[in-house]
Amino acid sequence: MLALIRASHPEPGAAVTLAATLLAVSVGHDWRRTLVVATTVGASQLAIGWHNDLLDAERDATVGRADKPVATGAVSRRAVGVAAAVAAAATVVISLLAGLPAALAATGALASALLYNRPLKSTPFSVVPYVVSFALLPSFVVLALPGQPAPPVWMVAAGGLLGGGAHFANVLPDLDDDARTGVRGLPHRLGPPWSRAIAAGLLLAATLTLALGPAGPPSWAGLTAVALALVVLPIGWYRGRRASARGARPVAVFRAVMVVALIDVILLVAAGRLV
Question: What are the CA-CA distances from residue 258 to residues 16, 89, 209, 273 (Å)?
Answer without folding.
Answer: 12, 29, 17, 25
